[in-house]
Amino acid sequence: MNKDTRLSDVLHVLLHMAQDNKPATSQVLARSMGTNPAVFRRTMAGLREAGYVKSGKGHGGGWQLARPLSQITLLAVYEALNRPTLFAIGNRDDRTDCQVQKHVNAALSDTMAQAEKLFIERFSGITLDQLAPDEVTSAPQP
């Protein structure tokens, strides 16, 4: 199964955006994500709608952070990306009369819910400035 790297890709781009602190084009940022500008813009749309980044058109336009890194959590970025699937594990059959399957489903569902709760708790406590190298966090922020 292919891994969804959007979260990692976007975090990488956001930290570079903070480092440069000037507008960067979709083409330049897409290259750093290893994708094309159209995919980059679609990926960043949720972050723009949430107010974490802004984009301008035309000469001198491009993408910039709309908030300081200290005001953006990992959870916020994850949610702006429409919560990519955490686990590829699923129940075999949700609608079953089989008692064994019901017990298996309950155990899997409960464990996944606990893991997701921990994930959300941890991600809500980490801001992007905590991930940035020192030279990025000392750069002027929007």
TrEMBL record:
GO terms for cellular component: cytosol. Gene3D superfamilies: Winged helix-like DNA-binding domain superfamily/Winged helix DNA-binding domain. Pfam families: Rrf2 (PF02082). It comes from the Bacteria. InterPro entries: Tscrpt_reg_Rrf2, WH-like_DNA-bd_sf, WH_DNA-bd_sf. GO terms for molecular function: DNA-binding transcription factor activity. This is Rrf2 family transcriptional regulator. It comes from Aureimonas fodinaquatilis.
